[in-house]
TrEMBL record:
InterPro entries the UniProt entry points to: Cupin_8, JmjC_dom, JMJD6_ArgDemeth/LysHydrox
Organism encoding this protein: Crocodylus porosus (Saltwater crocodile)
SMART domains per the UniProt record, alphabetical: JmjC
A single GO cellular-component term on record: cytoplasm
Entry protein name: 2-oxoglutarate and iron-dependent oxygenase JMJD4
Pfam families per UniProt: Cupin_8 (PF13621)
Domain JmjC, chain residue ranges per copy: 143-302
Length: 427
C-alpha cells in the first residue's frame, strides 16, 4: 500500500457512521473489465474496488501462469478428465443436486471424485441429462487436501485475506474452494459467508452471474420476509407472494469467460449459472475494508436468534450463552471467536511492524519499509480498522454478558496494545 492509498483509506474510514455497517457507495451500473496486468496495481484495486465495494472482472491474462490452466484443460478448452482423474481420482468430494431444493439450498452428498467424473462424462454423452439429476461439485477444499499441487497463485489484489489467515492459524478449516460442474449446473440466490468478499476464477468454461448490490435484495423478499431460492422463477412477479418485487431494479448481468476472475464485493447477492462445462477456483475473504460489515452481519444474526427463542429468555439462566451457541451453529462463529479472530490478525500485524522497525534500525537509512508485498502502511491500516471494530465489539452489551475472563489478553489490554503499536509505527 502506497502513501496516497493509505491517506485515501484513512479519510474514507474516518467517518465512523460510514465505516460501521454500510457497504459504501452507490454501485455502478456496469462491471469494469481490467485487461492488462502491468497497468493495474494493488493500489488501483484497493482504491477503485475494495473501498467503494464495486465488482470487477480481471482478464484471462491474470491467470496465464497457473498450473490448473495448463493441466486441467484440454486444447479445445474442455475439462481434462484424464489428468484430473490421475491426480485426484481417489479424493472424496462434496456434490450438490441442482434439481432439488432443501432448506433453501441444494442437498449435498460426499462421493469419490472418480465417481463424479464418470457421472459427468455420462451426463455429457446423454446430451446433458441424467436420471441422477444435475450434479455440481461444490465447496471442495482442494487447496487444503492437496497443498503440494501446482494449481494457482493468489493474485496480489486478494492477498489481504483475514479469513484464511485466521483459519490457517487454527489449522481446522479454510475458505478456498474448487467448483466443477456440467453445463446447466447453477448456484441459488445468496450472499457469501459472513458477507465476505469473494473472487472466482474460471479455469475453463463460462459462467453467467446475476448480481444485486447491497440492500437491493430487500425488494425480493416474500410476504414472510424470506429471500427467493431462484430469482428467475415466474412467481416473483406475483405481488401476492413478493409484494415489493416490482420496485426492484434488474440484476447486473455478467458473463465470465475462461481464465477470467470476477471480484464479488461484500453483501452483493448473486445467482450463478454454468453456461458450459466449467471448473472454477473460489475464495471467500475478509480484510480491513469489510471487517465492519462482517461484524454487523454477526450482530444481525444474533438478533435473529434472540427473536427466535425470545420466549425462553426469562426461564433459561444461560439464555445469552445459548443464543451464542445457536448463532455459531448457523454461521460458524460466535462473538468470542470473532474476538479471537481480530486478536490473531492484530498480533500478526504488530509482529510485522516490529520486524520492519528492527530491519530499519539495523540498516539505518534503508528504504525498505515493509516485510511483505503489501507494505508497512497496510499493516497500520489493518490495525486501525481492527481497533474500530474491536472498540464496537467491546462496547456491545451481548459481548459484555459473556465470560470474558477466558479471553487473553482482555479486550481493554488488547486495544491499548494496538493503539500503541499504531502510534509507534506512525512516528
Amino acid at each position: 500500500m502506497d502513501r496516497a492509498t493509505f491517506a485515501c483509506s484513512t479519510a474514507y474510514f474516518h467517518d465512523r457512521s460510514r465505516a460501521s455497517c454500510g457497504t459504501a457507495c452507490k454501485p455502478r451500473e456496469h462491471v469494469d473489465f481490467i485487461e492488462k496486468v502491468e497497468s493495474f496495481n494493488y493500489s488501483d484495486f484497493f482504491r477503485d474496488y475494495l473501498i467503494p465495494n464495486h465488482p470487477c472482472i480481471l482478464s484471462s491474462k491474470f491467470t496465464e501462469g497457473w498450473g490448473s490452466r495448463r493441466n486441467w484443460v484440454t486444447r479445445d478448452g474442455k475439462p481434462n478428465f484424464d489428468y484430473l482423474l490421475q491426480t485426484f481420482g481417489e479424493a472424496v468430494v462434496p456434490v450438490a443436486n441442482c434439481e432439488v431444493k432443501e432448506y433453501n439450498a441444494n442437498p449435498k452428498e460426499q462421493i469419490p471424485f472418480k465417481e463424479y467424473v464418470s457421472y459427468w462424462k455420462e451426463h455429457i454423452a446423454r446430451n446433458y441429462s441424467s436420471p441422477r439429476g444435475c450434479l455440481y461439485l461444490k465447496d471442495w477444499h482442494l487447496y487444503r487436501a492437496f497443498p503440494e499441487q501446482d494449481v494457482y497463485t493468489i493474485p496480489i489484489y486478494f492477498s489481504s485475506d483475514w479469513l484464511n489467515e485466521y483459519w490457517d492459524a487454527l489449522a481446522v478449516d479454510d475458505y478456498r474452494f474448487v467448483y466443477m460442474g456440467p453445463k446447466g449446473s447453477w448456484t441459488p440466490f445468496h450472499a457469501d459467508v459472513f458477507r465476505s468478499y469473494s473472487w472466482s476464477a474460471n479455469i475453463c468454461g463460462k459462467k453467467k452471474w446475476l448480481l444485486y448490490p447491497p440492500e437491493e435484495e430487500e425488494y425480493l423478499r416474500d410476504r414472510h420476509g424470506n429471500l427467493p431460492f431462484d430469482i428467475t422463477a415466474p412467481n416473483l412477479h406475483d405481488s401476492s407472494i413478493y409484494p415489493r418485487c416490482a420496485q426492484s431494479s434488474p440484476p447486473v448481468e455478467v458473463i465470465q469467460e475462461a481464465g477470467e476472475i470476477i471480484f464479488i464485493p461484500s453483501g452483493w447477492h448473486h445467482q450463478v449459472y454454468n453456461l458450459e462445462d466449467t471448473i472454477s477456483i473460489n475464495h471467500n475473504w475478509v480484510n480491513g475494508c469489510n471487517v465492519a460489515i462482517m461484524w454487523c452481519f454477526l450482530q444481525d444474526e444474533l438478533a435473529a436468534v434472540q427473536r427466535e427463542i425470545s420466549e425462553w429468555r426469562e426461564t433459561m439462566d444461560d439464555w445469552h450463552l445459548q443464543c451464542q451457541v445457536i448463532m455459531k451453529s448457523c454461521t460458524g462463529i460466535d462473538y468470542k471467536e470473532f474476538y479471537n479472530f481480530l486478536k490473531v490478525i492484530a498480533e500478526n500485524r504488530i509482529s510485522a511492524l516490529k520486524s520492519v522497525l528492527d530491519d530499519e534500525a539495523l540498516a539505518k537509512n534503508s528504504p525498505k519499509a515493509a516485510i511483505s508485498t503489501l507494505g508497512m502502511l497496510h499493516s497500520v491500516f489493518d490495525l486501525k480498522r481492527t481497533v474500530e471494530v474491536l472498540t464496537s465489539l467491546s462496547a456491545n452489551e451481548d459481548f459484555k454478558k459473556l465470560d470474558l475472563k477466558s479471553l487473553s489478553p482482555p479486550p481493554e489490554a488488547l486495544l491499548h496494545h494496538l493503539k500503541a503499536a499504531i502510534d509507534t509505527a506512525l512516528l
